[in-house]
Amino acid sequence: RSAVTPAQPPLTECDREPIHIPGSIQPHGVLLVVDPQTRCVTQGAGRIAERLGVAVWAGQPLEALLGPVLTAAIFSPAGSLPRNVTPPHATEAFDVQLTHAGAELLIELEPAATPELMATILPRLEEGAQRFEQAGDMQSLLNLAAREIRQLTGYDRVMVYRFLADEAGKVVADDIAPGHSSFLNHHFPASDIPAQARALYVRNLVRVIPDACYHPAPLWPPRPADQPLDMSDCSLRSVSPVHLRYLQNMGVAASASFSIVKDGELWGLIACHHFSPRGLSLDVRNGGRALCGALSRQIRAWEDVSIYREKVRLQSYEDQIAADLQDEAAPEDFLPGQLPFLAEMLDADGVALVHGAAILQHGRCPETAEVERLADFALAQGAGMVFATDRLAGPGPRCDSPGQLATGLLALILSAEERWMLLCFRADVLQTINWAGNPHKAASADATGQLNPRASFQSWSEQVRGGARPWSPAEKEAMQRLGGLIQTAWQTRRIRDLNRDL
Ligand code: BLA
């Protein structure tokens, strides 16, 4: 399938679901809500009586359920919680996690990992982080990350999912068990991971859905509707039903995802799928989180390298211009001959030099009347000397003369009085995007008003006018410095000429 359509607007219904207060948990563990003053259990969820081996639990002291040692550890301010503990009346061992919701303590118990697991995880983490450091480029790093997380989690399909500028995302690397399909290079619309989920995943870095077909275990006794329990930090938090249907529609039985947070922002996720139910122990989750921390540091290092390389490249062009201007060339005589050089420097499809009524063009520029209009527009932006946009077709003037489409403009005002400026253009990029399913039907409401995610994740290709490649901060700064160089040279010559005339 294929169509030419503009990028879709966000699906705001998805953004409104209050996923932090589901009022229930996933049933592979149990949750105890404790009042720290009385140290009694005020609420709980899951099969507490059966799994902790007690007849009554609501309103009971925590110690009666978990025993004195674990209870003391929970209330000791700095103490770490013991692993693999069997409460006095229970027949199974648990790993325990402690979080807070306002004044309340949330104690989560989940099946314990076997102790040997930790011994194998630690060396693997160290090796993994080291391999990340040795990766030769960004893509190799992302491929390695998918491989390491698959080895650690044992999930069938592990994908590095990267958010794009419009909050849609793309699978940029994967590692898959033989026989399963790949979403590599496929795009997914922003509504697949709505805004409130993205915000939560910056705070809470790992989530696991061991069985996408589970029945939620509600909190009991119920609480007043206006005092819901904030479960933002809970590992057992029950998941959005829309997302569960999404996983079922994809044929996925278990899902886990690890946040890749860079500079405080969600850069992407490592999304893991398994085709039969599968949980992840606390140790494996912590291990994955540590690996993703190492990964995000390396991603940052590679991004810094690419910014540095770009700056060095631009600097060499600037040095050349500075040297030429030093050789006493008058900027107004010098610039007209430099348009091809400037187009190359700024990776522009076309460059126009406007000086008073004169317009000189090189490369792929809009029609002259458009250039005039854009020149007026750039001048009207006033204050700053440099103006940049990658979407002239959005707010501001349109510029879509047939065959000469330019949507990216980087303008340098050399002199407002003389109407003297340099305009660099970038053409619109018509991109073919492969989506995993039709993104324009990402959700539909049924007769009861309930939202349903799309049913098909079959490749669906679309041609999109994506705007021009954005001007990078380094390019804008280089343009600004170029303005400074030309201004200085121009003023120096003016003063010299004035002095000579006197
Ligand atoms: C959550 N959506 C998620 C999560 C992922 C995705 C990874 C985090 C939970 C998890 O780990 O499973 C999406 N999973 C993906 C994508 C890939 C993948 C893109 O593997 C690609 C490879 N989802 C919809 C629609 C809505 C929606 C239409 O498709 C809203 C109406 C909602 N997705 C939605 C919600 C959550 C979510 C609400 C949060 C679930 C939660 O944490 O409770």
In terms of DSSP E residues, the strand content is 15-25%
Bound molecules: biliverdine IX alpha
Strand order of the largest sheet: 8-7-6-12-11-9
- Low-confidence blocks of residues: 1-10, 394-404
What does this structure look like?
The chain has 502 residues and is an alpha+beta fold. The chain folds into 3 domains: 24-110, Beta-Lactamase; 114-215 and 239-313 and 431-465, GAF domain (Beta-Lactamase), CATH 3.30.450; 328-429 and 469-501, PHY domain (Beta-Lactamase), CATH 3.30.450.270. Helices cover 35% and strands 25% of the residues. It has 13 helices and 21 strands. The protein has helices at 12-16, 48-52, 62-66, 68-75, 115-134, 138-153, 195-203, 241-250, 282-326, 331-334, 339-345, 368-380, 473-501, and strands at 24-25, 30-35, 40-45, 94-101, 104-111, 157-163, 169-176, 187-188, 206-209, 217-218, 254-262, 265-274, 350-355, 358-363, 386-389, 408-415, 420-426, 430-436, 443-445, 451-453, 459-465. The chain is elongated, with a radius of gyration of 30 Å. The N and C termini lie far apart (74 Å). Residues 1-10 and 394-404 have low confidence and may be disordered. The protein binds biliverdine IX alpha.
SSE inventory with pairings:
Blueprint: H1 12-16, E1 24-25, E2 30-35, E3 40-45, H2 48-52, H3 62-66, H4 68-75, E4 94-101, E5 104-111, H5 115-134, H6 138-153, E6 157-163, E7 169-176, E8 187-188, H7 195-203, E9 206-209, E10 217-218, H8 241-250, E11 254-262, E12 265-274, H9 282-326, H10 331-334, H11 339-345, E13 350-355, E14 358-363, H12 368-380, E15 386-389, E16 408-415, E17 420-426, E18 430-436, E19 443-445, E20 451-453, E21 459-465, H13 473-501
Antiparallel strand pairs: 1-10, 2-3, 2-5, 4-5, 6-7, 6-12, 7-8, 9-11, 11-12, 13-14, 13-17, 15-16, 16-17, 18-21, 19-20
The structure holds biliverdine IX alpha (BLA).
